[in-house]
Amino acid sequence: MLTTNARRARQVAGWGVWAGVACIALLVTACNSSGSSAAAAGSTQASAPASASSPASSAGSGSPSGPAVAPASPPASPSVTASAAGASTFLAQGQDLNGTALYRPACNSGCPLSGDSTAILDKMSWTTWSATEAVGAGIYKLDGCNPSCAAGPVYSVATVITLSDPVKVCSSSGTRWFWTRASFTFPSGLPKALQGGSAPENPWVFSTVASAAQRTCAG
Predict the structure, then answer these.
(1) CB 127 within 8 A of CB 135
(2) For the chain, which residues make up each domain, given as ranges?
(3) Which of 111, 158, 194, 197 has CA atoms 20 to 30 A from the CA of 173?
(4) Which helix (H) or strand (E) holds 18?
(5) Beta strands 89-92 and 174-178, pairing class
(6) Do 111 and 95 contact (CB within 8 A), yes or no?
(7) Tens digit of pLDDT for each residue in 31-46?
(8) Torsion sign over Cα 88, 139, 121, 162
(9) What is the per-residue burial (b if ≥16 Cβ within 10 Å, else e) of 87-113?
């Protein structure tokens, strides 16, 4: 009986050893499988950014299949002005290019802007007079032309005038630059008779001077 029990004990112990060995083998296999899966996942994640960045790399590589990039347009050449030519700019009295060319005029006896003397500058002082712009303050005498310009009242209005847009005029006596645009502000406003449809032209383009410039300096 003792011998039989001992034999059974050895058999049970043997089975226990083999069961332990089998469990250890299963655990090692499971661990290796988990490690391989994690390594594969890590490898996939690491390669993802490279795949995502590949389109940008191919776009910057200058491949013929990429979109063409248009070159930047060159800046336009600046137009020639009185400033660039180093010349002075004048105000044509009454828009008459054959009359007096005015430079920073005080206009103490009046400087007609119109050929019919219905718009006259008076008592002017200039804060700026360059080749491209002139700014001055004084009195703007405007004929109300009511009932007619010959018999209408003349209004003296405080004004600030800006002269601009010089053009080159050519003649047998030489080449000069003249203003072609006058813009006005009226610090004290305009009298009622010169408001609405009777207001003076502002800005005023000296079309006679502008057309003379195109005609005399053509070509």
Answers:
(1) yes
(2) 1-34, 87-216
(3) 111
(4) helix 2-60
(5) parallel
(6) no
(7) 344 444 443 344 444 3
(8) positive
(9) eebbbbbbbebeeebbeebebeebbbb
